[in-house]
Amino acid sequence: MQDTNRLRPFFENIAFDRDDNEVILNFGPQHPSAHGQLRLMLHLQQEQIVKAHPDVGYLHRGMEKMAENMIYNEFLPTTDRMDYIASSSNNYGFALAVEKLLDLEVPRRAKVIRMMLLETNRLMSHLFWLATTALDIGAMTVFLYAFREREYLMDLIEDYCGARLTHAAIRIGGVPLDLQDTFIADLKKFLEKLPANIKDYEDLLDTNRIWLMRMENVGVISTDMALSWGCTGPMLRASGVEWDIRKEEPYELYDEVDFDIPVSDKGDNYARYKVYMEEMRQSARILDQLIPMYYETTPELMAHAPKYISGSKLDIMTQNYSLMQHFVLVTQGMRPPVGEVYVATESPKGELGFYINSQGGPYPYKLKLRAPSFWHTGILTDLLPGHYIPDVVSIIGTTNIVFGEVDR
Amino acid sequence: MIDTLFSAFVFPGLLYVLVWTVGLFWFFRKFMAALHKRVGPSFNGKAGSYQTLFDLSKLLTKESITPDGVNPYLFSIMPLLAVIIAMLPAAFIPWMDGLVVVDSDYGLLALVILIGIEPFLLFLTGFGSNNKYSFLGGVRILTQSISMETAFFLSALSPALLFGTMNLTQIVEQSSWFSFLILFPGLAMYFVALLGLLEQPPFNIPDAEQEIVYGFYTEYSGTNYFLLKLAEFAEFMAVFAGATALFLGAYKGIFFDSYFFFFMKMLGIAMLMMTIRAATPRITLAQMLSFSWKYMVPLALLNLAWVLFAKSLWFMGA
Hints:
- The complex is a heterodimer of chains A (408) and B (318).
- With 408 residues, chain A is mainly alpha-helical.
- Chain A is built from 17 helices and 6 strands.
- Chain A has helices at 63-67, 72-79, 87-102, 108-137, 140-161, 183-205, 209-215, 223-228, 234-237, 245-248, 269-295, 313-318, 320-331, 372-378, 380-383, 389-399, 403-407; strands spanning 22-27, 39-45, 48-55, 339-347, 350-358, 366-370.
- Chain A has a 3-stranded antiparallel sheet with strand order 1-2-3.
- In chain A, α4 runs antiparallel to α11.
- The longest helix of chain A is centred in the first third of the chain and has 30 residues, at 108-137.
- Chain B is 69% helix and 0% strand.
- Chain B is built from 13 helices and no strands.
- The radius of gyration of chain B is 20 Å and the shape is globular.
């Protein structure tokens, strides 16, 4: 007879009733500050954490397996559902990986528009991060202020692609649409206001001693720890490593724009907060430089590669070959050459990597996603013990984990 | 007989507390909305004024769920007790010239004790909920009330020391602009301790939503939740009215004395509390403890010394 208990997951074997003064608190998956579906098993001595187990998988949809049964263009909107706070960066990571596989050259205007979308998404993600972290620590006002700015950006992107959260605005080989007439003017209006807004948040938070008390020297990640847990993005930069894929392996036009990488060597919550705030300023700076670059480009939006990319709508409607090619690409999908590729991009949360193994068929043979939040969830095991319950909340806040991305 | 019933059920009893709760709740929502640069309730009634009424009546008609494994009597009687205890201090407050239900020589003592019992009842609600979050909330409220009440009581006693009486009516009668200035440090300390006692930011540690899921409120729903909220707002009234009567001269006004001034003074304290609520994050339990015992209590003792000094300087010779 098989021992049924052996098949039960680890978490169901925990004895909750203990007599050694240790409380086991089931923190999540339904908890106001679990940032989605995080479940933490906290072993508590009074309010101090002795042991922490992050448990993930409550939002698992099997995206990597789904990709094996979808043509490449079909999978693209699915990537929206990973990091749903900044969905264009996921679209972009996937599109860039496929483009590298196909060896496509994207037109310059498409590159500029893509970068605009990426940086707007970074701003949206960082504003969302600021809002939720402030709320976790109890600063309701900053939450509402930051959401107001994020709302503006969401409206802006809605004007561009029609969607607010799941954009799917970047296609393999370029972008589907040119910017509409009002986009640049609206963006300029936003960029003029943004420095004052960021200063508003900093006035509300940085000069507040309570905020400093809650953030400074809480959740300190040393450089070694950050490297060994595979931290990337702001988490790594706040721990003293100057690493940004936009600088290290520039993609798109990131080597043509000026921007700085904020770094801090403290590694605590406050350092992370500072890095995020500075990154918002740098994003705004990049967007400022992109506006003149946009006007210098010719209106060409999709790469010219009839084997992989459908022609323009006009071509499809007027030319026989384009129509046939479009029909084949839509019904059967493109067939990239045999090969494998790993492409990493700097998403707002860190290194977002796509590994694609193509066997020459219309579906990827294997697709692997490397989501930064997954590793940032793992570090909680080492980071939380020794802290108290209020600090758990602020640490989860500053790690900026999004569960669409952790669970895929 | 009629008078007793009137004061028990109309003013300053049940009806008064209900109207205050509904009105203050609505005012909080609108005031916070203005600070947050949003609209706030605006759909029901003029400027959303029916919203709170609807909320409260909805809560009253909803099922109140008793969780498994708790003592149902303890679980359900605590909210009721909390409301009653929170409404009692109103009887000792001199609302208007000559209008005080119980004119006792120990009015201040009664006020302080009735306000001080409340957190222990809330602790029992958390303790009796059979939920780890509620239990943590209960422990936190006990820790917080013990540390904050010391400073609260010490600063509440300073007017009694200055005027040499615990009768609230006499305290109000003797108060003047000059005594207000002397008692100002006491008022400031009373206010800070009040934030801790009422679990308002930055001291909203016991019912921190993001940390322990509203603490002792977690398992409460329907009528019981309504009663707890009512107790919270009745407690607001008791503490605000206490501050007004002790430090701000109660009903005394600029040109004429009236309940209007009493009300405006209470509203002023409420607005200050709301502004602090909008501007500050939450501190942790350990930081609250060190703040309370390292700064508040010694300062409250120093304040008592200052009041005694001022009394010997300006009030003894007269």
